Amino acid sequence: MLVYLAAGVLGYLLGCSNMALYLSKAKGVDLCAAGSGNLGASNAMILMGWGAGIAVGVHDIGKSVLAVVLARWLFPQTDLAVALTAGVGCVLGHMYPFYLGFSGGKGLASYIGMVAILNWRVGIAVVLSIAILTLITDYIAVGTIVTVIAYPVFMFLLMHSWLPVLILCVAGAAMLYKHRGNCVRIYQGVEIGLRQSGRGQKRLA
Description:
The protein is mainly alpha-helical and about 200 residues long. It is about 75% helix and about 0% strand.
């Protein structure tokens, strides 16, 4: 149990690093007051442009990759569940950073990083699935919701073990809760879609 706790805390602290916050401070943009209102890659892209969105996404993917790698290095005799705990901890740290009143991003990039470092083929499949769903629907949230529901099911079919699924469901439940506002805005037809994101800087001018 102490190993799981240590892995979770390690992941959480790494997840608290937030590139969207750093860039928004440098550019004088309040990400919490516009767009989807969160400190994540998709809102950074919408309000500060594609370059900022990519930078934030790479950072958020990288920190979850680092969390899993460090957990495996520190606890080499442990199973997949410990690595997943570190990855999920990173996702939760990104979403609920303690120094920002537990209000951060929505966790997708960090979730992708966790999936990719555990199995790069599955990571590519997840990225392609999200990209296709986003292009079809114009909303990143749709791809996110499908991913956090489908991946735990895939893990259970692959491993026939409930523990990895339960660990993943912690992150999945938090991400679904964070995306409830997106679902409402999509239903109301007021959500900012991918095709509008490039106009973010013009709207701020």
